[in-house]
Design brief:
four-stranded antiparallel beta sheet, single chain, binds ribulose-5-phosphate, six-stranded mixed beta sheet, 2 domains
Length: 228
């Protein structure tokens, strides 16, 4: 039987959740397994409150009976568990493949710890093969795309069937193919300088640990620093 490496990594991360914690719930097919395991533990008596990074994760948590709170009702989170599209050895990430990067970043940055859960295909030497998702406002998107292209990528507006894809916040996503991102911090600064950009999928200095599920059934843990 083949190993479900996403499930392996996600369930390991859930072991770090303790009674009384306020937990951020990520988005995507790896975070799905973490939320599922968390639901099981809640049904066995674990006491937590959670916030979700997307409607999909919120719906899943609600169905499993995980108590959800509004952001306004808490001022910080203890731990967020979320997936990534790419991660390097310094715990720099590309996120946003599922389109939830803005909420994911707000939640992760409001958490004392963020654990990234991923299968080994996501671990890379240098970020950039995965097109970097950049959330942009619909207003004057053509200008924003042109400015993104000047950073050396090939931006494409994400589509959902015949329509332009819209995030949970009503914005567009430009997927920016860089191939190699030599300096993620420098690129992050350049992106922040473009006025139509709401946020981008580079997570730098945010994740405190990565749990990587491997095809042979083992788990690799990369530890970083807790950022708050
Ligand atoms: C969603 C994300 C996801 O965490 C990322 O796309 C990884 O997803 P998956 O676990 O399905 O591979 O950033 O915006």
């Amino acid at each position: 039987m083949s190993v479900n490496v996403k499930q392996l990594a996600a369930e390991k991360a859930v072991e770090y959740v303790q009674d009384g914690m306020k937990v951020g719930l990520g988005t995507g097919s790896t975070a799905y397994w973490a939320i599922r395991k968390l639901g099981e533990r809640v049904q066995q008596g674990l006491k937590i409150t959670a916030v979700a990074t997307s409607r999909a994760s919120e719906d899943q948590a609600r169905e499993l009976g995980i108590p959800l709170v509004a952001f306004g009702d808490i001022d910080s989170l203890d731990l967020t568990i979320d997936g990534a599209d790419e991660l390097d050895g310094d715990l720099q990430l590309i996120k946003g493949g599922g389109g939830a990067l803005l909420r994911e970043k707000i939640v992760a940055m409001g958490s004392t710890r963020m654990i990234v859960v991923a299968d080994e295909s996501k671990a890379v030497q240098t970020l950039g093969k995965f097109p970097l998702p950049v959330e942009i406002v619909p207003f004057a998107w053509e200008w924003t795309i042109a400015k993104l292209a000047m950073l050396g990528c090939n931006p494409e507006l994400r589509r959902s069937g015949d329509e332009l894809y819209k995030t949970d916040n009503g914005n567009y996503i430009a997927d920016c193919r860089f191939e190699v991102i030599a300096s993620a911090p420098e690129l992050a600064l350049s992106l922040q300088g473009i006025s139509g950009v709401v946020d981008h999928g580079l997570f730098i200095g945010i994740a405190s640990m990565a749990i990587i599920g491997k095809n042979d059934g083992s788990i690799e843990i990369i530890e970083g620093e807790t950022h708050l």
